[in-house]
Amino acid sequence: MDKRILIGGVVALAVLLVFDLVLFWTGAAGALAFRTPLGSLPMLDVVAAFGAMALGGAIARHRFQWIAVAVSLTLWVLTFALLGTPSPASPMTPTLPEALRFNALAIALTVAAAWAGAFAGERWAQRRAAA
């Protein structure tokens, strides 16, 4: 694996995590979440996925789109793994099918935004390097 791709992935993941922590600490995590028939749509997370993966794509310069999709899907899998862990503090943990149904639109748009952001970041870096 190219070192630039690895650094781009680490930077994109770090940006996503810092952004989510800031949203959590400020209490703005659900500020722009829209309810739809397909579930909740957190617009700030979609924008963050696009921006973080655009930065990662700009650092990597090539072959980063599928890394961005893999990072985004991995974060969703980890989220569902944590949701599926029973906790005595919250006995009303949703089942996996319920959680997937409620988050289907958010998953699709976050993954699409990650791919589009990586694509845009790569193209921007390639044009800048050619100029």
What does this structure look like?
- It is a single chain.
- The chain has helices spanning 3-26, 43-60, 65-84, 96-130, and strands at residues 33-36, 39-42.
- It is mainly alpha-helical and 131 residues long.
- The protein has one domain.
- The chain has a two-stranded antiparallel sheet.
- A hairpin with a 2-residue loop joins strand 1 and strand 2 (39-42).
- The longest helix has 35 residues, at 96-130.
- It is elongated.
- The model has no long low-confidence stretch (mean pLDDT 87).
- Keywords: Membrane, Transmembrane, Transmembrane helix.
- The chain crosses the membrane at residues 7-34, 40-59, 66-84, 104-121.
- Strand share of the residues? 5-15%
The helix fraction, in percent, is over 70%
* Strands in their spatial order, largest beta sheet: 1-2
Based on CA atoms alone, the radius of gyration comes out at 16 Å
Give the low-confidence spans: none
Terminal Cα span: 26 Å
- Please count the beta strands (DSSP E, at least 2 residues each): 2
Largest sheet entry: 2 strands, antiparallel
Number of domains: 1
- Number of H- or I-type helical stretches: 4
Keywords: Membrane, Transmembrane, Transmembrane helix
Could you write a compact summary of the structure shown?
The chain is mostly helical and 131 residues long. Helix content is 74%, strand content 6%. The protein has helices at residues 3-26, 43-60, 65-84, 96-130; strands at 33-36, 39-42.
